[in-house]
Amino acid sequence: MALKDLVYGAYERRLLRQIPAHRRPRHVGVILDGNRRWASENRSTSDAGHRAGAAKIVEFLTWCEQAEVEVVTLWLLSTDNLTRPDAELAMLQEIIDETVTGLAATRRWRINPVGALDLLPEPTARQLKLAADSTTDVSGILVNVAVGYGGRREVVDAVRSILLEHAAEGTDLAALASVLDVEHIAEHLYTKGQPDPDLVIRTSGEQRLSGFLLWQSAHSEYYFCEAYWPDFRHVDFLRALRAYAARQRRFGA
Predict the structure, then answer these.
(1) Where does the chain have alpha helices with state H?
(2) Is the pLDDT at 251 greater than 90, yes or no?
(3) Which of 4, 8, 77, 213 has the greatest number of beta carbons closer than 10 A?
(4) Alpha carbon of 118 to those of 159, 204, 215: distances in Å?
């Protein structure tokens, strides 16, 4: 074994010792950023960059299993991304279809699409639904696959769902306004019934959320990593967990 591997392994073990089991996140959200810049710096095509990023997902979910994370949300395609040129969007959708199908085929994780599926091409929406239906009985990590996702759109969809539900019951707007509260909104989000994300990771050095889990991340801890997503390593993940474990969560207090 090379000296570099020995040093890397020793550092991993040291990081693990610094992460108490009782201070690990239940729900981790990830903004998988930097695929195109990774491709550019490696003198490759954007297609290769996105495929390298897709290949990282199984490895990342394996690390989450080892850390006993219960829910992972992966932001694969935003609503803003849907305005990209047709050729690039078709390439992204093909990679997403292949990735989600592959994740479902492992039978290790329960797939849950989150996003405005009505905005997606029919084949992609169908593939996401098939992946979800085929893994409903899987007991592993719940993996939210955020495709066609936007935080503002999610809140609008939640409010629209509430209005339609109460309209069907004959509730007038004044009566609805008098009882509408935070929990009503939460019960109609794409992630209803799930714990909010404890930790949100963004790769590539960008330090913004871009609307990711806008409602749910109100009290999340954030970790921004300089590595592009295809280069994200186990030690980077462990550093994120260590940073999370070291923080005193105040939940807005």
Answers:
(1) 3-17, 35-41, 46-66, 86-106, 122-134, 151-169, 173-179, 182-186, 234-246
(2) no
(3) 213
(4) 17, 30, 21
Assess whether 144 carries a catalytic annotation: no
Q: Catalytic annotation on 81?
A: yes
In contact, 148 and 79? CB cutoff 8 Å: yes
Q: 33, 196, 198, 231: which one is catalytic? A: 33
Place of tokens 């994300």: 197
Condensed to tens digits (0 to 9), the pLDDT of residues 107-122 reads 999 999 999 999 999 9
* pTM exceeds cut of 0.85: yes
Mean of pLDDT over the chain: 94
Q: Identify the structural domains of the chain with CATH numbers, from first to last.
A: 25-151+196-246 (3.40.1180.10)
Select which of 35, 42, 80, 81 is catalytic.
81
Per-residue pLDDT, 252: 60
Q: Are 149 and 78 in contact (CB under 8 A)?
A: yes
